[in-house]
Amino acid sequence: MQFTAEHTEWGRVDITLDDLGCGRSWEEIHRVRGVQLVCPECRGQVFPRVSKLGTRHLYHRTRPPSCSLANESLEHHLLKLELVTCARAAGFRAELEVAAPTGEWRADVMVFSPDGNRLMALEAQLSPITAEEIAARTGLYERDGVRVCWFGIRPRPWVGTVPTLLVQAPAEQGQTWTVAAGLARLSSPPEGWSPVDAALSDAVAWMLTGRILPHTPRCRSRKVTYGNEWCEWAEGWTASYSDSWRLWWTTPAYVALDAELVRQEEEDRRRRQAEEKAAARQREAKAREKARKKAAYAAFWSRTGLDQQQWRYFRALAELFFSRNLVFGAPDSRYGDGRPVYERSGPEGERWTLVGVACPDPCRLRAWAEELPLLVPSHGDLTVLAGRAWAPFQVYVLDPETGVMDRERVMPAAVGS
User: Fold this and answer.
1) Contacts 24+ apart (CB under 8 A), 399-408
2) Average pLDDT score over residue span 160-173
3) Is residue 83 located within the same domain as residue 13?
């Protein structure tokens, strides 16, 4: 079953058109003796007839094994007929079985723009073909400036690797062809991509008028209606080959939304990276600070000769002597590697006031020693401080061994005495 032929005088004949595409009528060829119609592929003679379903078509009396037009299936012929009918219903000139001038391709249906240029090829692909072969054929159309969409009925490994629609024939007379897979819409998160139901006639009109276009989704982190991953959306439609389906038809608005979501995802990714880097820097800074404090404490214990038990007694004596709520900070290089002493006050102890320095290194005293009381654990430390005084120092001796608590004012005159 085929729909086009060549007449020796009239030229190309398309029996799907009322005027046969050449200003003639069906009655001039159907059951008319002497009409010479030849197949455009094998050049064999073809004859017009009407099927039991009332479909006009052409046939070879002897089917040539090498002629693809003669050996196309009934499904293929009916789908081609539906595609050309949809294109014409959308207001476009469409012809069946149009070959390239070079013969490198022959479109099942070629749709023409209003200015007469080839606009789009509609290909019914029902026979087996590899993804590589269909990509090569698509490339030939693209090279010649022709858009193309491939229409299938069953899931195949190639579906979705090129612009594709899977369609479903009407189950009963009076029903229409419908799109089974290949149309999608993009909703804002968390819905993501989801399928769109449509009549085949509407889908063909949309693609010819630019209302839909083939698009490879970029927004990969969004989940979809079918499946748990972005690439599994086609599984619910085709039941197989979902991993290969990467291209579907959608509106320009959804393409723009996809790009915006990708931009947001990229911003989120950069933000997360920045946050991770900042967190890593904080962890490193904390680790360095922890190591610094550990080293400072080790140096403090070594220099003062105090152990943990003695230090607890020293702190208790200080709180007892001053009758204040005191907090001892970590060894601080700003205070001669001594431990700053703070008084906590306020309803919840939120105010910390620096009130002294415990066990500073006598060799590293600075101007602060003139203003802040110095707390030491023995009179021997007091003597060392007295030897370093350049101004009056207020020194408190809190001896954890004896429990002695003294307050001394060291004067610079003590130097050298």
Assistant:
1) 399/317, 400/306, 400/310, 400/311, 400/313, 400/314, 400/317, 401/310, 403/313, 403/317, 405/317, 405/320, 405/321, 406/379, 406/382, 408/382
2) 90
3) no
pTM as predicted? 0.65
The first and second tokens of residue 244, run together, are 């290969």
Strand partners, 271: none
Contact assessment for residue 364 and residue 370, using Cβ atoms and an 8 Å cutoff: no
Phi-psi region of 176 (alpha: psi -120 to 50; beta: other; left: phi over 0): beta
Q: What is the pLDDT of residues 110-131, one digit of tens each?
A: 999 999 999 999 999 998 899 9
Q: Cα separation of 355 and 345, whole Å?
A: 12
State whether residue 312 is helix, strand or coil: helix
- The last residue of one of the domains, among 71, 96, 123, is 71
Q: Could you tell me the pLDDT band of residue 165, with boundaries at 50, 70 and 90?
A: very high
Beta bridge partners of 101: none
User: Do 63 and 118 belong to one domain?
Assistant: no
Non-local CB neighbours of 174 within 8 Å, separated by 6+ positions: none
Average of per-residue pLDDT values in the chain: 87
Share above pLDDT 90 across residues of the chain, in percent, rounded to a whole number: 57
Contact 162, 135 (CB under 8 A): yes
Domain limits at 27? 1-71
Instruction: Give the whole-angstrom CA distance, residue 70 versus residue 358.
Output: 104
- Given this model, what pLDDT does residue 237 score? 45
351 vs 343: CA distance, rounded Å: 8
